[in-house]
Amino acid sequence: MKILVCISKAPDTTAKIAFTNNNTEFDTNGVQFIVNPYDEWYALVRGLELKEQHSGSVTVLNVGTAENDPIIRKALAIGADEAVRIDVNPTDALQAAKEIATYAKTQGFDLLLLGKETIDYNGSQIGAMVAELMDLPYVSLATKLDMNETTATVSRDIQGGTEVVELSTPAVISAAKGMAEARIPNMRGIMAARTKPLNVVAASGASASTTISSYELPPAKGECHYIDADNVGELIELLHNEAKVI
Q: What is the pLDDT of residues 43-54, one digit of tens each?
């Protein structure tokens, strides 16, 4: 089984968010970057589990510049067999999806896995875009994935229950919480990652379809008003005259 796992670089959840260049760019000064957790904890680890069950290989793919190499090496340390970096800094989801699809079309992967979204943009777009561009079946928000030869059985949470889908591979699946348990790279994996191949390939030339006008931080939280439990009238008055619906 030949598996491709798409990984993205994301700022650590504790990073302080600020913008620069007239609020058109994310300020990376002092920010620690990590592998996007949905890609690492669920998509990558489940891909490794499937490789261990059915044999085969796991390749991680990142669309980005050389500054992304450390997070790619972490994916190799966790257990991926090889890595590919498409050498371009994408500025929107469609550009990244086009680069992924152009590369993956020629490689004969049985399964393409990625996290349901990145923790910085929360767009949940790339999986569906890649599937459409490659004309492959797609299941989003998967919480369980099992393989039986060329048939994938996928579960995902829906309102009021769980939906179970069967589809033939090759296919694209985005992973949500529950797909797998996170793995911590051990010393052997870290040492092995240094010699595993990280192949840099030229971008296909896909262009972005959107531009960023500006970013804006949410308004600061207002002060809390504490009302005595016996003073219901004051609470009602504040709700009527000062409370804001967001």
A: 999 999 999 999
